[in-house]
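Curious: can you check?
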Amino acid sequence: MTPLEKTQGGVLSSRQIQAMAEGGAIRAAAPLAHGQIQPASLDLRLGPKAYRVRASFLPGNGRGVGDILSALAYDEMSLEGEGAILERGCVYVVPLMESLALSPDVSGAANPKSSTGRLDIFTRLITDRGERFDEVEPGYGGPLYAEVSPRSFSVRVRKGSRLNQLRFRTRPEAGQGGFALSDAALAELHQRTPLVDGALNLRDGVVLRVALGSAAFGGVIGYRAQKHTDVIDVDRIGAYRIDDYWDRLPARDGRLILDPGDFYILASRERLAIPPDLAAEMAPMDAAIGEFRVHYAGFFDPGFGAGEGGAPAARAVLEVRSREVPFILEDGQYIGRLVYERMAETPQALYGEEGVSNYQGQGLKLSKHFCVE
């Protein structure tokens, strides 16, 4: 971990993640693939086997995931070759190809990839002895597992498929404060480098509002997942027709009634831009604002949304599910917030500068699996 010793605390960049892999802090059953290291995160790959289990679980202190799998697993599936179909409504645990040997000053946080969240694939990271999903304790050494539960569509996956991603953080030095930027710091930053294209609303992060007006996206304000569809192969890009899987939602007086259990793709009113030296994560608003869930895939890389001259140019896509009762959303209603964190260093390549960036400059956009019309 020598390359990290002199950097400030914060989210590690692609260069630092590469150094971790070369130094043995990140270990893999096969060499890291092209594009697997993102500007501020590492894509995680499914291993060769999946286990269908009766219920979700956390191992807790002193227990390994493998010990619990031996008691819960009732269907072992091979993901080699063409892979296997993970059925909608079922829960699977998949050992990942990556494992970790972190130093005591490095921790991790996981999230589904953007495309995973937009397919309504509920994916969480589990570690041995873990007491919380999607968290890797400082100094953790051991294997990684993904809990995968398709909610709207049955999906085909295979060894090497990438469903979630992992960010690494180093502890801030004394006097630097915590990871997240305060509202005061965000307000000052917005004066120099606009974070959104309109008024800045702050509430422990930048507040986002939902766009449901007829002018936002040509009269279609969102998509609702159909209940009975064909399987989606998560590794096939641009292969599926939108209308075979989604119902288009027309604008209606700036309102949308969320039906319990249905899954929606919506978008924010605000256009965003993430500065090069920051990373952001979508966090849910307080549950008191309504009985719905927003936040499946929450990482925003440095450089995301930056248009000409760095101006905010991309909307946040919102994965929304109502809970127990129907709920009315109104155009402009607060629906989520972005929490910003410092990078330990500015990435050498920002989001959209290398390789394929499917969501740079996005408006209301489904996952990359659906063909552009």
